Amino acid sequence: MNDMSNCATPSAAGPNRRTFLGATGTAFAALIASGCTTRSAGRNVLATAASKAPFGGYGDLVPDPAGMLDLPQGFSYRVLSRLGDAMDDGGTVPDRADGMGCIDLGGGRIALVRNHELGPQHDLGGDYSEGFGRDAQGRVLPGGTTTMVLNASTLEIEQQYRSMAGTIRNCAGGVTPWGSWLTCEESIWTRERELADAHGWVFEIPADAGKQVNPAPLKAMGRFNHEAAAVDPRTGIVYLTEDMEDSMLYRFIPVVPGQLAEGGRLQVLALTDGITDARNWPENGAATRMAVGQNHPVRWIDMDDVEAPENDLRLRGAAAGGLKIARGEGIHMGDGELYFCSTNGGAAKFGQIFRLIPHAGGGVNDTPDALSLFFESTSGDQFNYGDNLTVQDNGHLIVCEDQYTDTVTNHLRGVTPEGNAYPLALLRLQTEPAGACFSPDGRTLFVNAYSPAATIAITGPWYA
C-alpha cells in the first residue's frame, strides 16, 4: 500500500493533469511512484512487512509535558499552524481543521491543503468577499479550505492562505494523481438553513493556486452527505464515502479521466452473493454478517438523478441492492487496493475497515472487483471509531479516532497488514485527530487537531 491518496505532484518534476491524461494503466502508476515519492511499490512493501515478525507497536506512549500529544519514545512533534494565526491574505486560520492532503509542488516545496468543517454559524476567519455560497444575509459561508506551502526540508511555512470559501462542513476529501485536492461537503443543508444555494457537493482545489479559488461544484459526483474521496490512478475513477448510518460506497467514472468537471457516471457498490448489509450490527441478525478476510465479488449499480434534491441517493441505492455501510468515512487508494473506514460498524459498534480491490479495467471486464472486511474492532481499547486514514511506508494503516465522551480522548491507531491494531499517538485534547497524511519522503506524518484547530508534524523512528 503506497500512499497515493495523500500525495501527488503537479510540478514539472512529477505528474500533472496533462501527463495524467496522456498516461494509462501501469505506466501512470509507475509515474506516480517515481514522481511523487521515493517509496517502494506498495505490494512489495506489504509483502516485506508481512514476512517479518509480528509488529506490536512502537512501545508505550510517553505523556506529553505540554498536555497535547503523547507519542512513543523517540518520536516528537511540532505545531505548524494554530487557530487564529495570521495568514498571508489578511485572514486568520479558521477552526475545525479536518481532512487534509499533502501534495509535492516540486522545487523543494510541499502543500498541505486543509479542510475546515464550518457551518453558517461559525467564523470565516477574515473579510472574504468571494465564495461559492452565502447565507440568508448574503455573507460568504465559512466552510472551505486553507493551504499551507512548506519548505519540504525544514517544514517552515512559506505561504498560508484561504484557498476556498462559501461551503458547509468540509469534512474530508482526497488528493488526486494530477495534483489537486477534492474537498467534500458533509452536509445537504439548503432550505432548512435559508441558504442561497444547494449544498452537499465535491469541489476541486488546485494545490498550487497561491490564492483563493472559486470552483464550481462537481454535481455529477452526486449530492449527499459526502465524507472522503480517493482516485484510482490506473483508471481515474473516484471512490466516495458517505457519513450516514445507512450509507453507500460510491464510485464516479469520469467521461475524461483527470477532468472531473466534464461529468461522468455515478454508481453504488453492491455484492453479487446476496449480502446487502455490511454493518454486522447484532440487531440485523447473523445471516447478513460479513466475516473478516473473506472476499465478496462486487457489482456496481448506476444511479440517476444524482443531484438528489430529496437527499435520497443512498435510499434508492439500497432499494436497488446496494451494500449498507455504517458511516463510511476515511478512504485511501494504494497500489491496486483501497481501504475505507466504517466509523461505528461491527458487532461491538466500535468500527470496521474494508478493503476493496478494483479491477484495473474499471470492473467492466470479466474480472469483478472484490470487497472484504479487513478489520473489525471488538472493544474501544483496541480501536474506537475510525475516521480519516492514510498509510505508512511499511504498509500499515494510520487511522484517526473520532469518539467523543466525557472521559475518552482520541488515538492515532496503526493497523498492520495482518490486521492488528496498536496505539501510535494519543491526542490529549478533548477533540479528534484528523487529516493524517505523510510527506512525500515518508518521514513526517501531518495531522490536525480538530478544535481548537492546529496542524501538527510528527517525526520519529518509523518502522520500515
CATH superfamily: TolB, C-terminal domain
Count of individual beta strands: 26
Going by helix content, strand content and strand pairing, the class is: mainly beta
Radius of gyration (CA) equals 20 Å
Mean pLDDT: 88
**How many distinct helices?**
4
State the share of residues found in helices, binned by percent. under 10%
Query: Whole-Å distance between the termini?
Result: 13 Å
User: Number of folding domains?
Assistant: 1
> Unreliable stretches, pLDDT < 50, 5 or more residues?
1-5, 9-14, 24-51
Beta percentage is 35-45%
The largest sheet is: 9 strands, antiparallel
CATH topology: Neuraminidase
Provide the CATH top-level class.
Mainly Beta
SSE order in H/E notation? HHHEEEEEEEEEEEEEEEHEEEEEEEEEEE
The 3D shape can be described as: globular
The CATH architecture name reads 6 Propeller
